[in-house]
Task: inverse folding
């Protein structure tokens, strides 16, 4: 019986932002993430006599969203000698292309759905490599908890592994959806432009140290260290964007307002840190005891924003259709 593949999104605490090889999606840095429980993609495949088809959230896709999926399908089909045309049916329980990591859950779920459909018996490591070819961040969504994507130097050596699949750490992520509309500049394009920044080399050079520090914060169960390092790493990523030639930013006025709110909360003794990906939305890292106060502060400062309180999610799973 063919299954639905479910993959959760992951948010990087040490970010992937730069490629050594665009086609193979080999990164210039290793990254470390937290898989989330509240955001995920469910994907399943069907054979068709017609052309390849992509249905997202019940709607037939006809734009660039579809081109990227078809390109990836062709890659999978060529790799495993499959000639069928396929219908990809997917539901995103996450805003699509808004900087909330939809590509991480999407391509992990698609890779897993493909392997399930054709009964390919891949190890987690092989599945991570396969997902990476669809979207780099998807390599990490194979696993729950904390995952590390070791950059590697080749298709064979670039994959993610679980650092801790079921962490006991008191760590929560409040996603503040300031603008859930699809972004104009994809992550793929953004990270390519970022390479023109004079700070791009220092950004890469700091990766070894930042990753090592983050791993030791996790092992020491040190929330303060984890949060500060994550906030610094995200700020560095956005600094290379604003100093690229030409400069650009994913921030919107509300993004700055949210950053200031996090800083104010901290001054008041409510410990929290932000991280931001390729989009205007802000994720706040905190501990259980502060969730209520932080959510209240965001609700007071912003009208009608969707706020989702997440914690650790699980790795790839398969559901009956
Ligand atoms: P995000 O910040 O959401 O990860 P990206 O620019 O990295 O944004 O990737 C968004 C792209 O991922 C979409 O334009 C689409 O091509 C692809 N995508 C998103 N959700 C799905 C899905 N459920 N199935 C297949 N592809 C998807
Ligand atoms: C800022 O994995 O979306 O979220 O490999 O080109 O698909 P592609 O990029 P993608 O980039 C993610 C960028 C990020 C940081 C991260 O998740 O590590
Ligand atoms: Co993405």
Result:
């Amino acid at each position: 019986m063919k299954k639905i593949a479910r993959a959760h999104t992951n948010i990087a605490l040490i970010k992937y932002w730069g490629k050594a090889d665009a086609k193979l999606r080999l990164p210039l840095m290793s990254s470390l993430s937290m898989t989330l429980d509240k955001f995920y993609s469910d994907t399943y495949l069907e054979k068709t006599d017609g052309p390849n088809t992509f249905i997202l959230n019940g709607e037939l896709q006809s734009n660039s969203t579809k081109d990227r999926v078809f390109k990836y399908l062709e890659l999978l089909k060529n790799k495993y000698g499959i000639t069928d045309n396929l219908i990809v049916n997917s539901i995103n329980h996450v805003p699509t292309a808004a900087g909330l990591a939809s590509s991480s859950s999407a391509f992990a779920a698609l890779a897993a759905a493909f392997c399930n459909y054709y009964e390919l018996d891949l190890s987690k490591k092989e599945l991570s490599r396969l997902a990476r070819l669809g979207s780099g961040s998807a390599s990490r969504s194979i696993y729950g908890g904390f995952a590390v994507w070791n950059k590697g130097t080749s298709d064979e050596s670039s994959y993610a592994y679980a650092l801790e699949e079921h962490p006991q750490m008191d760590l929560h992520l409040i996603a503040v959806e300031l603008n859930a509309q699809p972004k104009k500049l994809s992550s793929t394009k953004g990270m390519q432009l970022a390479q023109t920044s004079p700070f791009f080399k220092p950004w890469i050079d700091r990766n070894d140290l930042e990753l090592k520090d983050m791993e030791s914060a996790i092992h020491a169960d040190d929330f303060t260290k984890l949060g500060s390092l994550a906030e610094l790493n995200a700020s560095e990523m956005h600094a290379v964007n604003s100093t690229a030639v030409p400069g650009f930013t994913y921030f919107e006025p509300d993004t700055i307002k949210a950053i200031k709110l996090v800083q104010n909360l901290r001054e008041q003794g409510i410990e929290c840190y932000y991280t931001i990906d390729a989009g205007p939305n802000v994720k706040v890292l905190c501990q259980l005891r502060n969730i209520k106060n932080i959510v209240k502060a965001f609700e007071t400062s912003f009208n009608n924003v969707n706020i989702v309180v997440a914690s650790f999610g699980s790795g790839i799973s398969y559901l009956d259709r």
User: Anything to note?
Assistant: The mean pLDDT is 98.
